[in-house]
Amino acid sequence: MKFSRILVALFLATYSFGCAHRERLEDTISEPATVIENQSVETHSASAVIASPTRHRDEEKSLEAIRARAMADVFVLKDYRPGKNSFVENAERHPGAWTGKGFRYTLLDATGPGSIRHIWTTRGEGEPNLTWEFYIDGEKTPSLSATDEELRKAMERYPISIAPANSVPYGNRDFNFFLPIPFDQSIRIDVVQRVDSFWLWFCQIDYRLEDDSMQGARLYGYHDGDGLRVAYAGLGEQKAELHEGEMETVRFSALRLAPMQEERLGRIEGPAIARELRLQWSAGANLRLMACYDSEESFAIDAPIERFFGPFQSASLYRHGPGDASCYLPMPIRESCELWIRNEGNEEAEIHGEAVVERVHGFSPSWGYLHARYARTEQTDGHRLHQVAYIRGRGQFLGMTLYNTGHDHGGGDFAVVDGESARPAFLHGVNGEDYFTFAWFGKGAHHPYAVAHSNEEGRYRHHFENPYPFQHSFSMEWGAFPGLSPESVCWWYQAEPCDGTLADGARDESVAWDVFGPVPIAQHEDGTSMGDLYAGLPTVKALDAGGKFDTREVEQHATVGWKTQWTTGPSLNLTYIGRPEIEINPENELGGMGHAFLARRTIHSRAQREVEYALTHDDPMELWVNGERVYHEGLQLNGFETRKVQVTLKPGENEIVARLTNYFNRTFNWAGFAMWPTAP
Fold it and tell me: Are 179 and 166 in contact (CB under 8 A)?
């Protein structure tokens, strides 16, 4: 009881201070209104737009209050290392595991400093399957231990605004936990089975590493008569910086555009932050919005207006009515921002609008420009993913809107952060609806993080709780069943004002691999592999001769030969190469405990030379060059690791063969690797 009383005191103490842990908005002051040619300008106070992030949780029900917290400094570029672990589990999928009450499994084992930023989980109906245990900085006894239901309820009753929104509505068994769980040195998350058996269980854990923004803080949990309570210790006082600078409403005169006509709608002078962009256009018109900063020739924003705004009524994007919508994602402007409109329809169309602009003293070096890029895959083949965006430069991925993706068990999200660097990060989720914080095809609004109408009409996910920073590059892809035409808009902030995207996964730099798989790995009853991991794979020679061989997920199988799979930059994704021959129906066919794959490419060399390659993977893998094995790792790794491999290339063509595996460990069903030379 003494420990409980201490935590109650800590809990009550948190009422006296805010806990936002945000970078400060820099040098924002009031300046005189700027008069822009052919545009009317009004001024008013900024205090109603930039609100304190320390409001009571009752105000989280207010979309305006949530918007103010979420948008305040989302454009300040971060430099932590993002991470994501994902699991879909039961005894049938994972032989030798989930064997009964008391079984323990480690979901995350990471060294800090850092913090957990979002936990999503779901399960079948009934009582909780698992108890979650959080061991912080080497604890022997977890400072937080609870079921998914207890975590959800504790988060809902926590009274201080820590995240942009501490909690979201609970719906169709979608358990979300958004309170940050900080650690200074390390964290281990275990789950302990509470029941004899269960049908199916999913989870995703988003976290940060190499981040000391919550250093010294600790989230504790204790149980009383009302259930689990949580409280922070050592968080310290964080004062939100309010800005009373004047705001301008810049109105853009109406444009009337003939089919295929393109004209400038307006220009916003900097330094400034556009806090709202509202456009009104002819109902049913097919218009495209484009924006360029600082007189750059390329467009940082380029998307059809209907897809840019979507059908959402949310913190980020708000549809006021037909042909009338606002974007509230802040648009920092150093010198200028020009908005252009192209009529891509067959009929004349009209558009006008306005921007609410905050005048600032200067453009901080830590700020990024808002970017948005539309993409569409004409027809999916099932195994090559829809390319949401491939970006070069420095920035942070905020999220995406997604349309026309079909059944979500066709795939999910996959991101590569800094894929060409010495330490790339691979972020892979589970099934598609889960990325949007819902479950079992749930719909609704989880402000400000996500809104879901339908897989066809549109969904969005914005990572206000944990954007994905990148220093060199960022790739986001989405898996889908064959025969679909998915569309997306990628949203991110970037240090550079120009367009840094590369089309179709940087196809000019990509490599085509011959690929084959998946083939189940023979296992003992306890789930351990027996013998040669690659014994089920055919030889390269047999495949080159046109041979076709059995591939299999769990029960479903098909007979195929070589397929072709392109890399995205240096990364080869083999997760879905069994499609379309293997339908993955029902969803329990989404992989088993172990599969093997084969990939082959050739490298041309003008002379004999030694080349060092970086090789990143997370499961057992071998690399062969001209018939000689040059790399072997037989262990399942604790997440993705990068190794250096020395390769001797002979003059002419050199055959590179990769034999790799896929196990359920930290990335659900993801199979693949990244390989690139460390020097030109």
Answer: yes
Q: How confident is the model at residue 8 (pLDDT cuts 50, 70, 90)?
A: very low
Mean pLDDT score of the chain: 88
User: Do 85 and 227 belong together in one domain?
Assistant: yes
Final residue before a domain boundary, out of 366, 397, 412: 366
The model scores a pTM over 0.85: yes
Q: What is the DSSP letter of 112?
A: S
Sorted by sequence, the CB contacts under 8 Å of residue 330 that are 6+ apart come out as 71, 74, 75, 273, 274, 275, 370
**DSSP label of 575:** T
> For 512-558, what is each residue's pLDDT tens digit?
999 999 999 998 888 788 899 999 999 999 999 999 999 998 889 99
Instruction: State the Cα–Cα distance between residues 456 and 479, nearest whole angstrom.
Output: 15
Asked, for residue 549, whether it belongs to a domain, the answer is yes
Give the Cα separation of 561 and 511 in Å (integer).
Answer: 19
**Residue 606 burial (CB count, 10 A):** 8
- The number of distinct structural domains making up the chain is 4
User: What does the pLDDT look like over 620-651, one tens digit per residue?
Assistant: 999 999 999 999 999 999 889 999 999 999 99
- Average pLDDT of span 230-253: 77
Domain boundary among 342, 366, 390: 366
Q: Say if residue 490 is in the same domain as residue 385.
A: yes
Domain membership flag for residue 615:
yes
What HEC string does 36-65 produce? Answer: CCCEEEEEEECCCCCCCCCCEHHHHHCHHH
Q: Are residues 653 and 538 in the same domain?
A: yes
- Domain holding 329, by residue range, is 31-54+242-366
Confidence band of 45 (pLDDT split at 50, 70, 90): very low
Domain shared by 525 and 411, yes or no: no
Q: Do 185 and 112 meet the contact criterion of CB atoms below 8 Å apart?
A: yes
Judge whether 587 lies within some domain: yes
Report the alpha-carbon distance of residue 72 to residue 30 in Å, rounded.
17
pLDDT given at position 29: 22
Together in a domain, 381 and 316: no
Main-chain phi, psi angles of 402, to 5 degrees: -140, 140
d(CA 95, CA 92): 6
Name the residue among 87, 123, 126, 91 with its Cα closest to residue 197: 91
